[in-house]
Amino acid sequence: MNKCVGKVSMSEEIAIGSVPRWPDRLSKPSARASVINNGASLFEVDSQKWVRRVAYYKKSLGVKLGSTHIRNVMDMNAFFGGFAAAIVSDPVWVMNVVPAQKPLTLGVIYDRGLIGVYHDWYESNSLPMPMPHLTIILTLCILLDFILLIILCTIVLRLMQCILNLLVYQIKLH
């Protein structure tokens, strides 16, 4: 649990009082971005990357955020929360999930005014993303991962009698 609880900073530059006001805080890296080398520049790159990706999803894949089909979204590898910031004008709720084995960036997500949690999707000595725990109804799932993991997820979802339309795009999103 200690990894999940943020420490209150005693230094002025990282203290909560130094976070910009809403909505400026969505686009400006907080001092806590410095938990990673080049954190401020990575914050900018991540934000720009997600603006491009969201535009692609909406245009090419016909993703309609805020419709009756897509109201709740989970970003399972949130990093700095760039995806949620990119769709802030859409009427959706986003849960940012920072994998426990990745850099601990949840404080930056909070500083942006977004919500999130740490979670360990991988259990030791088991298949990735334990599917028996999947109890939600999916209307759309976009997987950006290794092709073998995507194939594994596809097999498991088909075994759960889900109707799948698998779209595979070989594009550069960076």
Question: Which percent range fits the helix content?
Answer: 25-40%
What is the domain tally?
A: 2
CATH architecture grouping of the largest domain: 3-Layer(aba) Sandwich
Task: Give, in spatial order, the strands making up the sheet with the most strands.
Answer: 1-2-3
> Helix and strand succession?
HEHEHEH
Kindly provide the radius of gyration, computed on alpha-carbon positions and rounded to a whole number of angstroms: 17 Å
- Please report the distance between the alpha carbons of the first and last residues: 34 Å
Q: How much of the polypeptide forms β-strand, as a percent range?
A: 5-15%
Characterize the overall form. Answer: globular
Please tally the β strands and state the result. 3
What does this 3D model show about the protein?
With 174 residues, the protein is α/β, with parallel strands linked by helices. It folds into 2 domains: 2-121, Rossmann fold (3-Layer(aba) Sandwich); 123-174, no CATH class. It has helices spanning 39-60, 82-86, 106-111, 147-159; strands at residues 72-75, 93-99, 116-119. The radius of gyration is 17 Å and the shape is globular. Mean pLDDT is 76; it is low at 124-131, 133-137 and 170-174.
